[in-house]
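My convention is simple: the sequence line spells out the residues, with the fold written below as integer tokens. I include a record here:
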Amino acid sequence: MTNVALDTLGPALEPVPPAQSRGRPSNHPVARFLLRRMLSGIVTLLVVSVLIFFTLHVIPGDVARTILGRDATPQAIADLRNELGLNASFLSQYLGWIGGLLHGDLGDSATALARNNTDPAVWGVIGTPLRNSIYLAVITAALLIPLGMLLGVWAAVRVRKLGDHVISVSALTLGSMPEFLVATILIAVFFLGLDLLPPIVSIGPGETPLSHADQLVLPVATLLAVCLAFTIRMVRAGTIEALQQDYVAMARLNGVPERRVLWHYGLRNALTPSVQAIGQTIQYLAGGIIITESVFNYPGIGRALVQAVSSRDITTVADITLILATFYIAVNIAADLIVVLIVPKLRTAL
């Protein structure tokens, strides 16, 4: 059995296509694939923008009256409606909004206008919260990817053993708990019980979230605990399936070291579902951040969205929602592109 040729070991050992094919660079199919996915993403965003704008406009209630309050005079309400362009038709309002977006103008915040802010632009309202949320998401993702891969692979190579059971049960338990419950437990343990970490985040003017790193621990831990559950389970399942393939058995029979079998044949062929799982988890961060920021009073885009919804600031809500939708689509495209780049068969099929 030791004479079995290594070219029978399956997908992991298939030769990579040559750099040139039919006189064209091999990256052209990938570029066309990326262009198709980007065009599809743009069409999706247009559809989403219509749905967002329509939904916000059919919600009962007067935006101007909600923002100005019950004591506002009819003249003040009429002036604010005129300033916000609410007297125009739905189509005119939508085209004006989408046209501004194409030029990088997110419009004006109704709440900021009502407060007579010197800079009522939505960018001025959500710029800092968006930056703070990016900090939170990047830190979480930077910890999520290596931890998810390592714990998933570690559980897979110890399948049905104590370590696998501990990781699997922990992932299943955390995955079934909503963010606010995980956050509450962490606050109860690390603030009320041990008095080690602050339960809320306070970021002063001119500061970044990194200025108070200890305040980031509980929000990051909450997101990480919930997001790790799905990633670990998917990586574990993909690695177990890859290690059960015939080409892995052939590699072992040919005397290939177990470490090389695991990382070169097993993990490499488990990367496709793993990348897709990580992509879905990072997408989930957009929704998880909204809840987590509300629990910890984190001054991010989630809290800004909640405040905009409560004041019925239509333009701000529409802009934030579209930004989150763009994030979803961009992560999905990136995950698909990575899968195409790491799987030679997919590149040749484009």
Notes: Residues 68 and 114 are 7 Å apart (CA to CA). The first strand starts at residue 20 and ends at 21. The radius of gyration is 25 Å. Residues 258-296 form the longest helix (39 residues).
